[in-house]
Design brief:
Length: 632
């Protein structure tokens, strides 16, 4: 007995021949029980005389069915609904075959049935029941043995819908991890108090009681359409009790339509800062990009690479991926080629500051649409290198803008930043000058120039999120510049979606600003990341305030003081009403900047920038002295 139990419940798969013998034994037992039940435990002698024909006929039919259906090859301890469905089909077809044999014997034989029809029906029902019950019992016993340790983790699943049930079944299938689903939590009052697969459904208000009565290790959020604010509430509720929070990914990312345990991962800070789902005008974007040649500058960067991925889905004729960063561009090329084929995208190693090289590219490829994402973005670094900020962010943009006009590009979409509003640093000021040049060029050009402006992008190369993650991994401290500093945040895919939408909307000359939601305190962000990582603030990891960096301001803005915004048909996109500059005036001032830049006179260069943008007032920078009122 111990040996047979070992064969079924050990870690190796039970040999198929043993499963076949057990199934045939169940069929034999079922047939005997059927006769006993049918004849009220008093089987007539006439039935005994025919049993020597009935028994081999039934056993032979079932054996043939098992071979054809290969049910004996199933791994019993992992029995699924598909396995039980196959058992049902095999037994049903076998019963039909026995029924036909019975009828043929009646009409071609001596006018009698081999076995009574009532026996046939009872045997069919009892065989199905016993075979499936055996498989489920083995599965339950196996998982009970596997998870019998007192060290198993207690888990709560938030969401008692279909996704929650699939999550529970996915956990049941996992081997080597001891876990126990204590219950479901759901906001729907009609589900509260009911059970799913023997697991109780609780109301959200019962969470505190569950925590008091049980040691809960993790809560898994399985609701597919859970809003950002509600998700944040659940996370706060869990972190308050030092409970790990995990998340089930969207159905679209499930492998082969099935959820994998490895896809259930820790909630990341990005999951809590993203906007609600963005709805795009897919048809209009498709009409703008379909079978067009699209040039994306800065394609290897965080924003540029995501633009490449999203633009690729709209079936352009060709994608031109331009950047000077060789290795990340190569990785992006491999990714796009794997998804869309080798002739879909062309990689161009080039510098937007080299006019001759850029002219060659525009002449050769003749792009229909340009997304200009190439730029220097790090505030402190640009504060120390103003000439490079002008060379790339202003002159590089000027070259691309001029070539777009020369080669009659249909639309030029520039990616800008909220730091261009009332700039306090070189980077923001350089982007504002680039905005002005692009906008002024729109007048009199057949190319439509559109600017998009948004705040910090989660996960981008300049974001604090990767920095904080590295600091947490190293054991801290997390460095925050100021206790009150706040920033707007948006995920990379969200930002790029809105860039595509704004680019489609633009008629030329607009500066589009995006709804960035509520600004977030960086200190609060750091505290939440510490908790999400399973650490305790002040005990495991410290927060260290290091002071504002050169050019940095406490609060970012999306509109300048005298600007207003106009709504569009998209609720998350507005048009900034900004001052318009005559192109000749802008061209003259940009030319002056270029001349000073080449002379390497940093103070004069920044002074020229401030003359061009009166609202540019430096903060925490050596250039603050240029803002002092003149004594003349």
């Amino acid at each position: 007995m111990a040996e047979s139990t070992n064969l079924i419940f050990n870690r190796d798969n039970t040999p198929s021949w043993i499963i076949l013998i057990i199934d045939l034994g169940i069929v034999s037992l079922s047939l005997i029980l059927t006769y006993l039940v049918r004849f009220n435990f008093n089987i007539p002698e006439s039935e005994f005389r025919t049993f020597n024909v009935v028994f081999p006929a039934v056993l032979g039919t079932r054996l043939l069915g098992f071979f054809l259906g290969k049910t004996y090859r199933d791994i019993i301890r992992y029995t699924s609904s598909k396995d039980t469905e196959r058992v049902f089909i095999v037994i049903s077809l076998g019963t039909l075959a026995l029924g036909l044999l019975n009828i043929l014997n009646y009409y071609l034989g001596n006018g009698t049935y081999i076995l009574p029809l009532s026996v046939l029906i009872i045997e069919f029902l009892s065989t199905i029941f016993l075979l499936i019950a055996f498989r489920i019992a083995v599965k339950l016993i196996y998982f009970e043995i596997k998870n019998s340790s007192s060290e198993k983790k207690n888990i709560i699943i938030f969401g008692a819908g279909e996704s929650g049930v699939i999550t529970k079944r996915t956990l049941d299938r996992v081997t080597g991890i001891q876990q126990n689903v204590l219950g479901f939590i759901d906001d729907n009052p009609r589900k509260v108090g009911k059970k799913i697969e023997g697991i109780q459904i609780y109301a959200t208000k019962d969470f505190e009681q569950l925590v008091e009565r049980n040691k809960i290790d993790s809560i898994i959020m399985s609701v597919q359409s859970l809003g950002r604010l509600r998700k944040d509430e659940i996370v706060e509720m869990a972190l308050k009790h030092h409970i790990d929070v995990l998340n089930v990914p969207p159905v679209s990312s499930w492998i082969g339509g099935e959820l994998s345990y490895k896809q259930i991962r820790q909630v990341k800070i990005e999951d809590l800062l993203g906007r609600e789902e963005i709805r795009l005008d897919e048809k209009d974007i498709q009409a703008q990009l379909f079978q067009k040649v699209i040039l994306i500058t800065g394609a290897a960067g965080s924003i540029g690479s995501e633009l490449v991925r999203q633009v690729a889905s709209y079936t352009p004729e060709k994608l031109i991926l331009l950047d000077q960063a060789e290795s990340p561009l190569y990785e992006l090329q491999l990714e796009i080629e794997q998804a869309y084929g080798t002739n879909f995208a062309e990689v161009v190693i080039a510098d937007v500051r080299e006019e001759a090289r850029m002219r060659e590219i525009f002449k050769r490829h003749k792009p229909n649409v340009v997304y200009h994402a190439a730029a220097y973005k790090h505030v402190p670094m640009m504060e120390e290198n103003p000439s490079e900020a002008i060379r790339t962010n202003v002159m590089g943009t000027k070259i691309c803008v001029d070539l777009a006009d020369e080669f009659k590009v249909e639309k030029f979409v520039m990616v800008s930043t909220d730091k261009a509003v009332n700039p306090t640093n070189i980077m923001g000021a350089s982007k504002r000058i680039a905005e002005i040049y692009s906008q002024s060029k729109n007048v009199g050009s057949k190319t439509r120039y559109v600017t998009t402006r948004f705040g910090n992008v989660l996960g981008s190369n300049g974001s604090v999120i990767p920095l904080f993650k590295r600091q947490i991994a190293q054991g801290g401290p997390i460095t925050v510049t100021h206790p009150e500093i706040t920033r707007y945040f948006m995920t990379i895919p969200e930002a790029c979606q809105l860039v595509l939408e704004a680019g489609m909307l633009g008629e030329g000359g607009e500066i589009y600003i995006f709804d960035m939601g509520q600004s977030v305190k960086i200190a609060d962000l750091a505290k939440k990341m510490i908790k999400l990582s399973g650490y305790e603030l002040g005990k495991d990891i410290q927060i260290k305030y290091v002071g504002l960096r050169p050019g940095e301001k406490l609060f970012e803005e999306l509109l300048a003081d005298k600007e207003n915004s106009l709504p569009t048909h998209h609720p998350q996109i507005m048009i900034a009403k900004v001052r318009e500059y005559p192109f000749e005036e802008v061209l003259e001032k940009v030319s002056e900047l270029s001349a000073v830049m080449n002379e390497r006179d940093v103070l004069e260069l920044v002074r020229k920038m401030k003359q061009m943008i009166p609202e540019f007032l430096s903060k925490n920078s050596v250039f603050e002295k240029l803002d002092a009122p003149s004594e003349d």
